[in-house]
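Trying the structure run again after the queue cleared.
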Amino acid sequence: MKIAVLSDPHIGSSNPVFVPNWNKAVAAVNARDDLDLAVVLGDLTLYGSEKAEDLPFGARALEALRLTYFRALTEMVEGLKPDVVAHMDLVRKFEPEGFTFSQRVMSEIDRALEAIRSYGGILDINCAAFRNGYGPVYPLPQVLERAHRMGVRVTLGDDSHGVDTVGVSLAKSVQAAANAGYDSIAYLTRADGWRDAPLGQIAPITGGASQ
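Done. Tokens:
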């Protein structure tokens, strides 16, 4: 595996020379077809939040990241057509409480949702974000409500990385589905493939770990 590491770029609004250099480095990495992974380490901005002028600079960089993320997601969905698209908005993992996507990003999310809907793909409502303290379940309510209006089916996901978290907090996923307007949940069977269960028939195991 070949990995490109871009370390401590320290770009910022007060250092105009650094920005073109950063753009050149990114372009050089993107032009390579023999790299498996690109990693950015260290401080992205020179002063972080110490200078007010760097705050909008950082905000624009994060917005660009979200746009790129969802465009790449759409390409992946169109190319692979996976049965289930999991934690669709993982890119917002570390955002503060109350965060919502901009309308510009929501336009890219709409494209991704339409790509999922077009072949009958299913979106998972993933409780890992809530369980691990990163806000509401994936995806955010504004995304899940849009998915419902567009007719995208949903399933439940706990993203368990071990037996201790199997089913933990799935009740939050069920509630999120109801809040978005869904009345059924897709589930996979051995004999008949994907089927739908009425939302009212789905509930956490009494006394279990799914609370």
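Helices lie at 18-30, 54-80, 103-118, 128-131, 141-150, 170-180. Worth checking whether this holds up in the mutant runs.
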